[in-house]
Design a protein that fits this description.
This protein has 271 residues and is of the alpha/beta class. It has a single domain (3-27, 34-259), classed as 3-Layer(aba) Sandwich (Rossmann fold), CATH 3.40.50. The chain is built from seven helices and eleven strands. Helices cover 26% and strands 21% of the residues. A nine-stranded mixed β-sheet has the order 2-1-3-4-11-10-9-6-7. The protein has helices spanning 3-14, 20-25, 49-63, 78-81, 99-110, 129-135, 246-259; strands at 34-38, 66-70, 86-90, 114-118, 139-141, 151-157, 171-176, 180-181, 190-195, 219-226, 229-234. Keywords: Signal. Residues 35-257 form the ThuA-like domain. Residues 1-23 form the signal peptide. This is ThuA-like domain-containing protein. Pfam families: ThuA.
Length: 271
């Protein structure tokens, strides 16, 4: 690439016109990524879904990868899934796939496909144990009856060796609907970020007086190799306005790139 082109590319990255995925592959003939965003709901529906879809489409446009979006479970066939490097489950809820569609998605992951789950993706498919393993942990509850549903808290970010963590501050102050999970996945996944329960009231609504939260180590974003594929999950992203937060978008972009195989995936099991 000529010097003028390299300078222009650097300036475009600096002002956010394009992202690091494009910068890494510009002029090198890399395969263009394709991502499917799936946002079907069969239980609670987040009104932030349209904003999330629009934000991921914009990330794709700025980073030169293709984004398709659907709420049609019929998209889960072998032939159609093979078109995509990663499938993003965006605030899905409830039982969204039938048995044949589940089997097709399992084959897709086993063939090396990528999964990126956002927010309520963990509040999905409770009777499909394979999916529970893929997402890493199922949603349990969040604050909302004895304490505020949305609270500002401190997120501790671990490591700078992944595309999902590199853009983030080590200690990240942000508002969110902070999820508690039914199990703590930290011994089967690589935790990328934890929310510090000392900085907010973590009691959930599912028990009288509020369930106790998850304790000192409360994962909120993680990644793992799973059954032949790659999985990334973040519990952040409840409100539509959060999808205008550059840091959250950088985190999601990095996670999608990791799941799609477009960025390093150092996500082995933690000791």
């Amino acid at each position: 690439m000529r010097l003028v082109g390299r300078v222009a590319l650097a300036l475009a990255v600096a002002v956010g016109l394009i992202g690091p995925a494009t910068a890494a592959s510009a002029g090198e003939g890399h395969k263009r990524l394709s991502v499917l965003v799936f946002s079907k709901t069969a239980a609670f529906r987040h009104d932030s879904i349209p904003a999330g879809v629009a934000a991921i489409r914009q990330l794709g446009a700025r980073n030169h990868f293709r984004v398709d979006a659907t709420e049609d479970a019929a998209a889960f066939t072998d032939a159609n899934l093979a078109r995509y490097d990663a499938v993003v489950w965006l605030s899905t809820t409830g039982d969204v796939l039938d048995d044949a569609q589940q089997a097709a998605f399992e084959r897709y992951i086993r063939a090396g496909g990528g999964y990126a789950g956002i927010h309520a993706a963990s509040d999905t498919e409770y009777d499909w144990a394979w999916y529970g393993g893929l997402v890493g942990a199922y949603f349990r509850d969040h604050p909302g009856s004895v304490n505020p549903q949305f609270q500002v808290a401190t997120v501790h970010v671990f490591g700078r060796d992944t595309a999902a963590t590199r853009p983030l501050p080590r200690h990240w102050e942000r508002e969110e609907e902070w999820y508690n999970f039914r199990t703590n996945p930290r011994h089967t996944v690589r935790v990328l970020a934890e929310v510090d329960e000392r900085t907010y009231d973590a009691r959930g609504y599912s028990e009288p007086g509020g369930s106790p939260g998850m304790g000192r180590h409360h994962p909120i974003s993680w990644c793992q190799p799973y059954d032949g594929g790659r999985a990334f999950y973040t519990a952040m992203g409840h409100k539509a306005e959060y999808f205008s937060d550059p840091l959250l978008l950088a985190h999601i972009l990095g996670g999608i790139r990791m799941a799609a195989g477009d960025a390093r995936f150092p996500c082995g099991r933690e000791d």
